[in-house]
């Protein structure tokens, strides 16, 4: 198999990244039962910093290894349920064996308490970076941003200043979980602009996106470090320790290979959540190892949340305006309908018409007797064939159909991509006698990917058959037959309009029946 094949996403999605059984080596981990505080597992490096005479400590209480004040703070947190869902207990401490100060974070998850002790790495170059943060000023700038692009640029710049990465990117997912770098702030001497490039959904597979929806940030100090295994992780029939919320979880080796191919060593990603959906990631890149202290990591997460809120405001405002305009047009169309005997004329003549809805460039109504068209549409015979096709192919009870790639459905009008790459259609009533429809043209169709999106699968067999692609050279795809997508609320509005038409048609028929009967 030498030919490039599309990646089988299920291969990437199967890696259980929440239970890697190892952590990054600058930390030490203890996992204990959340009720008894008995130690269940510990990282192989734990004896280096904690009472070695107690090793192996499995079965002992956390108090055997940690200061009493910290263990009681953990107990209090457990009782008050303030250690779950990613919430952390944070302390700094010095340990009898070592002089350095450690950062301690503890959290509870799935019946375990997980304690992480973090030592800042010794290499001085790893500390040089972070500049003091003026969070208030950063938030003010974000609030003043008028557009999404502007807000994203400000966020990238401020978070880079705060964390000291050589590059910070704002990465945004589309509806199919492909993504695009929409803003980037980086050191001038790194000739590697990723801005405007697209990346396929398989670069950040489904289980990773699910995990990032729960746990909000990841920091890798050194891509090439050797992970430290958890000892006794799967012993005595225990389920492996779930590291979903662990700060020092070791990341997927496949992803670390991807980072190598990108030329990235130290890295970060912080989840950008908008209306409970993973909207994107704030991504940090560094060509050398890079350490970010816990308090700076927390501040970067807060600022990312500030950005997410601004996104929600900006997108919400734009959506609200567009919906208001549609409701207004819809209201005028329905009022027109009720005053008219001829619903076809009422929706296609004068102002407004069907064409004022949904950003369509063509629209029309197909009935038994007539095909009435406005704007740029396929010719009448094709439109009638399309209506027949829809009548046949929609499942019973379905009244609407929507697509941005009509050509993929082998529909009768599909040959006319110029006028009808996108189709939104709604039958009037369950008899499917009349059809309202809207069309949109093919959009200028090149997508610039950061590397050939079909190339992540390399020849091979077994579990290592899937590798991240090696090249991030710009790769231009000519995309044919795609229109811009239709928002779901537009489909709902089209169905409502069809309902209103149904009411009018019924009333008119009753009137005719009365007159003739
Ligand atoms: C995770 N992939 C990720 C992450 C990013 C990307 C940001 C989050 C982890 C982190 O914090 O670094 C991808 N990085 C990108 C993209 C850009 C970038 C798109 O800078 C563009 C600007 N990856 C593959 C393939 C597989 C794969 C083929 O390309 C699977 C076979 C897997 N990516 C993969 C996995 C993770 C991941 C498993 C989760 C890593 C983890 O959290 O353990």
Structure, briefly:
Residues 147-294 form the Phytochrome chromophore attachment site domain. By secondary structure, this protein is α+β, with helices and mostly antiparallel strands.
Mind explaining what this structure looks like?
This protein has 517 residues and is an alpha+beta fold. It folds into three domains: 1-16 and 122-225 and 242-337 and 449-479, Beta-Lactamase (2-Layer Sandwich); 27-119, Beta-Lactamase; 340-444 and 480-516, Beta-Lactamase (2-Layer Sandwich), CATH 3.30.450.270. The chain has ten helices and 20 strands. A hairpin with a 5-residue loop joins strand 7 and strand 8 (179-186). The chain binds biliverdine IX alpha.
| Span of the ends, CA to CA | 74 Å
The percent range for helix content is 25-40%
Query: What is the N-to-C order of secondary-structure elements (H for helix, E for strand)?
Result: HEEEHEEEHHEEEHEEHEEHHEEHEEEEEH
Bound heterogens, unique: biliverdine IX alpha
- Would you give the CATH topology of the largest domain? Beta-Lactamase
- β-sheet strand percentage: 15-25%
CATH first level of the largest domain: which class?
Alpha Beta
> Which shape, going by the Cα principal axes?
elongated
Compute the number of structural domains. 3
Number of strands: 20
Can you identify the CATH superfamily of the largest domain?
GAF domain
Average pLDDT confidence is 88
Proper CATH architecture of the largest domain: 2-Layer Sandwich
Question: Helix- and strand-based class?
Answer: alpha+beta
- Strands ordered across the widest β-sheet: 1-11-3-2-6-5-4
Sheet with most strands? 7 strands, antiparallel
Number of helices: 10
Low-confidence stretches: 1-6, 124-130, 459-465
- Rg, Cα atoms, Å: 29 Å
């Amino acid at each position: 198999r030498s030919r490039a094949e599309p990646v089988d996403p299920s291969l990437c999605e199967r890696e259980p990244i929440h239970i890697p059984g190892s952590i990054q080596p600058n930390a030490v981990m203890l996992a204990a039962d959340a009720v008894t505080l008995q130690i269940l597992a510990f990282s192989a490096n734990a004896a280096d910093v904690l009472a070695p005479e107690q090793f192996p400590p499995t079965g002992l209480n956390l108090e055997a290894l940690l200061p009493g004040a910290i263990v009681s703070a953990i107990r209090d947190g457990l009782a008050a349920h303030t250690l779950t869902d990613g919430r952390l207990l944070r302390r700094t401490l010095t340990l009898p064996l070592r002089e350095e100060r450690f950062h301690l974070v503890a959290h509870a998850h799935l019946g375990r308490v997980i304690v992480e002790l973090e030592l800042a790495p010794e290499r001085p170059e790893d500390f040089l970076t972070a500049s003091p943060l003026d969070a208030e000023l950063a938030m003010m700038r974000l609030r003043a941003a008028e557009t999404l692009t502007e807000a994203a640029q400000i966020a990238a710049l401020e978070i880079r200043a705060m964390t000291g990465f050589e590059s910070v990117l704002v990465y945004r997912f589309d509806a199919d979980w492909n993504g695009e770098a929409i803003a980037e702030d980086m050191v001038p001497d790194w000739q590697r602009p990723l801005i405007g490039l697209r990346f396929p959904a398989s670069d950040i597979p489904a289980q990773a996106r699910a995990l990032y929806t729960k746990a909000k940030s990841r920091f890798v100090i050194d891509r090439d470090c050797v992970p430290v295994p958890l000892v006794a992780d799967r012993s005595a029939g225990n389920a492996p320790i779930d590291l979903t919320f662990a700060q020092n979880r070791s990341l997927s080796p496949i992803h670390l290979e991807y980072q190598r191919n990108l030329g990235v060593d130290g890295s970060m990603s912080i989840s950008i959540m908008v209306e409970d959906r993973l909207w994107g990631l704030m991504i940090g890149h560094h060509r050398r190892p890079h350490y970010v202290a816990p308090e700076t990591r927390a501040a970067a997460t807060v600022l990312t949340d500030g950005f997410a809120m601004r996104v929600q405001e900006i997108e919400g405002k734009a959506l609200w305006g567009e919906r208001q305009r549609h409701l207004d047009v819809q209201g005028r169309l329905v009022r027109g309908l009720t005053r008219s005997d001829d619903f076809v004329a009422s929706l296609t003549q004068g102002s407004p018409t069907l064409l004022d809805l949904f950003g369509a460039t063509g629209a029309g109504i197909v009935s038994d007797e007539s095909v009435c068209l406005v704007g740029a549409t396929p010719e009448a015979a094709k439109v009638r064939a399309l209506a027949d096709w829809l009548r046949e192919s929609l499942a019973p009870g379905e009244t609407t159909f929507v697509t941005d790639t009509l050509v993929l459905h082998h529909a009768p009008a599909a040959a006319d991509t110029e006028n009808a790459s996108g189709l939104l259609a709604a039958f009037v009533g369950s008899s499917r006698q009349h059809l309202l429809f809207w069309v949109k043209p093919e959009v200028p169709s090149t997508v610039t990917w950061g590397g050939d999106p079909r190339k992540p699968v390399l020849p091979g067999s077994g579990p290592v058959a899937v590798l991240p692609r090696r090249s991030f050279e710009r790769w231009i795809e000519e995309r044919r037959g795609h229109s811009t997508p239709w928002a779901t609320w537009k489909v709902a509005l089209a169905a409502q309009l069809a309902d209103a038409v149904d009411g009018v048609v019924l009333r008119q028929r009753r009137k005719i029946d009365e007159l003739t009967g």
